[in-house]
Prior knowledge:
The complex is a heterodimer of chains A (123) and B (178). Chain A is mostly helical. In chain A, 67% of the residues lie in helices and 0% in strands. In chain A, helix 2 packs antiparallel against helix 3. Chain A is extended. The termini of chain A are far apart. Chain B is built from 5 helices and 7 strands. Chain B is 38% helix and 20% strand. By secondary structure, chain B is of the alpha/beta class.
Amino acid sequence: MRYFLLSLIFCVSYCSAADLYPFHSEQKEKLFQQLTQELRCVVCQNENLSSSNATIAADLRQKIYMLLKNNHSSHFIKKYMTARYGNFVLLKPPFIQATFFLWIFPFVMLAAGIWVYFRAIRK
Amino acid sequence: MRNTKYFVPLFLFFLLIFALHRGLHLNPRDIRSPLINHPAPAFSGYLLQHPTEKITQHIFLNHVTLLNVFASWCFSCAAEHPVLMDFRANYPQVQLVGLCFKDTSAEALSFLKERGNPYSFIINDERGNIGIDFGVYGTPETFVIDRRGIIRDKISGPIDPDSVRDELVPLIKRLESE
C-alpha cells in the first residue's frame, strides 16, 4: 500500500510537469527536461531549474519552453542563459581558465596518491 | 633532514585550512554579472506613468545612469527606497531609471505615491522579460551604466548609504569625467 501511494506521488509530479509545458515532439520534451536539470536556479544556489519553486526558476522554465518551441537548440539556450546569468547557471562548470584547477586538481591528487602508494609498498 | 617529508601532510593540512577559511568568508551570492563592460541589452518597453510612451535602451546614451530594479511586492526595495530618495536629492545630475519588475502598474504607482518617486523614468516590465535580459534574479538590483550605454557595475541586493558612498559615487564621478 505504501509503495502504491509513493508511486502515485511520483506519477502526479510527472503528469503535472508534462501538462504545464506541452510539447508536440518527444525529443523536445526530453531536451526541456535535460536543460531544466542542467541549469541552476540562480537564487537557490544548489537547486536546478526543474525542481525549484522560486519565481525566477518558473520564469526561466517558461523562457526555455518558449525558446524550444521556437526551434532553438540547447546550445543556443545555454548560451542565452550564460550571457545573462554567467557560467554560474551551469550546474556543471565549463572547462575554462578559471575552472582549470577545479577540474585538474582531483586527477593530480589521485596521481599523487597512487605515486605515494607505490613508493610505500616498494619499501 | 630526511624527516622533512613527514611535514608534507602538515603542510597540506594547513593549505586545506587556509582554503576552507577563505571559503568561509566568500559570499556565494555575490555573482559577478557577465553583462559588466558590455552594452546594456536592447529592450523596448513602456513608461510606467505614461503607458503609451515607448522607452528603449537609447535612454542610457549621453547620461551616467543608475538603473534600479524594484517592485512594490519586494520587501527590501521598500527598505532601500529612502536611500534612493537621498541619492536623487544629492546627485540630481545622475539619471536614475527604475525598472519595475513583475509588478502591476496600479500597485507600483501607489507604492511610489506613498513613498515618493526618485526616478526620472520608470520602465514597466510587468512580465519580467526585460529583467531576464538584464540577468535580474532578485530585486532590488542596481546597475551603473556609462554615457555610451555600457554597463559598468552591478549591485545585487539593496544599496545602503555605505555602498552609495564607497562604491557608487566614486564610480559615477569617474564615469562623469570620462
